[in-house]
Amino acid sequence: MYLWRAVDSEGEILDVLVQTKRDKRAALKLMRKLLKMQGYVPDAIVTDKLRSYGAALRELGLSTRHVTGGRSNNRAENSHQPVRRRERVSKGFKSPGTAQRILSIHAAVYNHFNVQRHLITRRTLRQFCAAAMDEWHAITAA
């Protein structure tokens, strides 16, 4: 199974897709889903050097916005770490459907509590975390 993950420039998880292949068709499915969800074409699309990304973006006419190489893909790679930790604890996922459900929920919860710490003071961070936790308690109590 392959985990396809889309992350925006602020580290928020846009979408998670679990598929059996890493070919052009799988990349096209992810790209189309993202473009439909976002409603606009981004300025840049940063990926690793997997050739299926380039082929999919060429077919969509977005190859001029494709960026690869260097450390530009670090944000997406680092967003995999919580998933890898969770997968290790649960000793893998039993099926692709289970993985898709768990990872989609995990992404939503992660986005709720994710705060860009380097952009704010410690005091403001504590206020944001407390507000997120209060909102979480209100949501889960219902």
How is this structure best summarized?
This protein has helices at residues 24-38, 51-60, 74-79, 81-89, 96-113, 122-141, and strands at 2-7, 13-19, 45-46, 66-67. It has 142 residues and is mainly alpha-helical.
Characterise this structure.
With 142 residues, this protein is mainly α. The chain has helices at residues 24-38, 51-60, 74-79, 81-89, 96-113, 122-141, and strands at residues 2-7, 13-19, 45-46, 66-67. It has a two-stranded antiparallel ribbon with strand order 1-2. Strands 3-4 form a two-stranded parallel sheet. Helix 1 (24-38) crosses helix 2 (51-60). The model has no long low-confidence stretch (mean pLDDT 79).
Major sheet: arrangement of strands: 1-2
CATH topological fold name:
Nucleotidyltransferase, domain 5
CATH class: Alpha Beta
Shape: globular
Structural class: mainly alpha
Biggest sheet features: 2 strands, antiparallel
Mean pLDDT: 79
Which series of helices and strands comes N to C? Answer: EEHEHEHHHH
Give a quick set of tags describing it.
142 residues; mainly alpha; Nucleotidyltransferase, domain 5; two-stranded parallel ribbon; 55% helix
Give the helices and strands, then pairings:
Blueprint: E1 2-7, E2 13-19, H1 24-38, E3 45-46, H2 51-60, E4 66-67, H3 74-79, H4 81-89, H5 96-113, H6 122-141
Parallel strand pairs: 3-4
Antiparallel strand pairs: 1-2
Helix pairs in contact: 1-2
